[in-house]
Amino acid sequence: MRETNFPRDGLGIRLGSRPSAGRQILPTASAPDIEYTLNQLVDDDEFHRLDAKLGRFNLFEAMGGVRAELRHSNFLAFLFSPSRAHGLGTLVLERVLRGILDDVAPDARPIRPLQLAVADLDDAIVHRERDNIDLLIEIPSFDLVVLIENKIGAGAGEGQLQRYRELVERRFPHRRRLLVFLTPDGAAPECEGYVAFSYRRLAQIIDDLTQHETIAPEPKLILAHYVEMLRRHVVPDEELKALALRLYDRHREAFDFVFESRPEPQGVLDALKERVLSVEGLIEDRSSATIFRFLPARWDDRLPDLGCSTETWTRTGRGLMFEIKLNPSSGRVHLILIMGPLSPQFRQRIYAAAMSRPEVFKGLVKPMGQHHSTLFSRELLPQTLARTLDFEQQCETASLAWSDFQRDELMDLMNQVEAIVAEVATS
User: Does one domain contain both 78 and 226?
Assistant: First the structure.
């Protein structure tokens, strides 16, 4: 019979010692089914084991470096550079290059893996974003150039791998070349001459290095954190996956209930909204799934004459505000200063004054619209990047663009708008 001698917290979860994972607890007649299934889940020792592994602190998660390709490339460049202060010398570079060459047919290898194992790679030079290539490694002692194109959340752009290959062939016509396409699952590159290499294999190589006796505790810990982060977020950890599947089989109803109760995922617009509203003096007007409207709070006091009908535009009756708009089909995000359906005389004179100051009101749309008019426009996330970057990179790109706008243009726009409205109101 189900134990009832433990008190319950406010969520209806029984407090006290847990029974073993295999123990069966029968529901009482009065217990709600979903409460019973959730109790079973939280009483399962394997659930606590999974929670402990997933909840453990990870340096790379704390730094926001989970699926950002730029940060992965930066860290790999650090590990591969023999001269950097990681205390690993050429060990990581040598082991990873040998792992890549293992996947190349012997007659197609630019260099034998054994040569790398017994050679000195201290002269290796690692370049980041040289000619937009993620990683370009020169090893003069072997007359070898290694190109690594790193993709985590998106595939290579059309013709991208071909362009990089031709660029390296032109720049290093007499050197041996190793071209690598690094992806989570080792996806086949859509260009001849590249070797497919996976983050799964990279994680295994680095994990093996954490057992290396000559590596000091500090770099060993960093390597272990990196591998753990990769297996949590980039490539599947088979042990964790098997554990999760066992738990799901035992507690299917509880997991389904939790999944159905999860909040809606945050989008780029939500992330930008948080950034904007963190700026003192900016307030929200209204929002939808694709539009976020905001304005300086002081405009409510300083621009009292810029009201408009609540039936023809925004329900707040404000006639001038900023909008951040998301195009769902392309992913493009842009910021505008928009004027609503004010009185015709006001609208015409404000628009004319803004048009006369192009150094401030950049991207003003001509001609003036009959209903609303864009006085300023700035792209925060171009369509080309929205289609090639993963979600974290999209948020970072748009956030940096907002920071630039806030620093360079926002205050000037606010002051100019207030000056124009004051002139129009008194003339």
Answer: yes
Range of the domain at 228: 67-233
Structure-block tokens of residue 350: 């404000």
Q: Per-residue pLDDT for 28 more than 50?
A: no
Kindly report, residue by residue over 164-202, the tens digit of the pLDDT. 999 999 999 999 999 999 999 898 998 999 999 999 999
Rounded to whole angstroms, how far apart are CA atoms 252 and 27? 16
Count: domains in the chain: 3
For residue 1, count other CB atoms closer than 10 A to its CB. Answer: 6
Pairing relation of β-strands 133-139 and 333-339? unpaired
Please give the Cα distance from 152 to 381 (Å, whole number).
19
pTM here?
Answer: 0.53
Tell me the C-alpha to C-alpha distance, in Å, between residue 391 and each of 156, 183, 262, 332, 386: 16, 16, 19, 13, 9
No. of helices (H) and no. of strands (E), the chain = 17, 10
CA distances from 268 to 137, 285, 290, 326 (A): 34, 18, 10, 8
The dihedrals phi and psi of 253, each to the nearest 5 degrees, come to -65, -40
pLDDT bin (cut points 50, 70, 90) of residue 249 is confident
Secondary structure of 59-107 in HEC code, one letter for each residue? HHHHCCCCCCHHHHHHHHHHHHCCCCCCCCCCHHHHHHHHHHHHCCCHH
